[in-house]
Design a protein that fits this description.
The chain is mainly beta. It has no helices and 18 strands. The chain has strands spanning about 1-10, 20-25, 45, 50, 55, 60-65, 70, 70-75, 80-90, 95-105, 115-120, 125, 130, 135-140, 140-145, 145, 155-160, 170-180. Strand 13 (about 130) and strand 14 form a beta hairpin.
Amino acid sequence: AGNYQVTVSDDAAPGCQDVLINILVTEPSSQPPAVPLNPLPSFCSLDAPYLLPTQQNGFTGQWTGIGVINNNFDPAGLAGNVMLTFIPNPGQCATSNTTQVVVDQAAIPLLNPLPMLCSQQPVLDLMPSQDGYAGDWSGPGVTGNQLDPHGLIGTVILTFTPEAGQCAQDASLAVDVQSPTIPALQTLGDLCQTES
């Protein structure tokens, strides 16, 4: 490799001027290029394992990195930027390449508290939107996002489950349900029918 000067002469035409030509000789790199990677989606820490594509721009290979087992990326327990590496199979004249995926930590919605309830009060509507997340309620006495306190006594735990695709996990709310108070009546003495 390098820069060389070559003199070109034409012996058949005496008196012609020789020409000096610069030639740059470049050797190919001994290091094959890195595999160009296709972009990967972002993830939520609640997402199911994702099968990473083993074909990248015509190259076949395997993935490694935190959360990767058998080319499946499991974001559970991860948050932030995660580095994954694609290693091409031997004999393809390419080297490994690394990409970054983002894993969002699942949020826990802040639930609006409920007041103390009486077991005899009417059915209560539970708000299906909590802290900006849409979802559904479940728990004792709950049907279709409504709480019927009849037959409930003490602390009742309700669960709010956000709809899929919001990267939010279940949250619980304790509700105090009291039984009705029976008033203590004062005992009256004997009365006569003629008394007013």
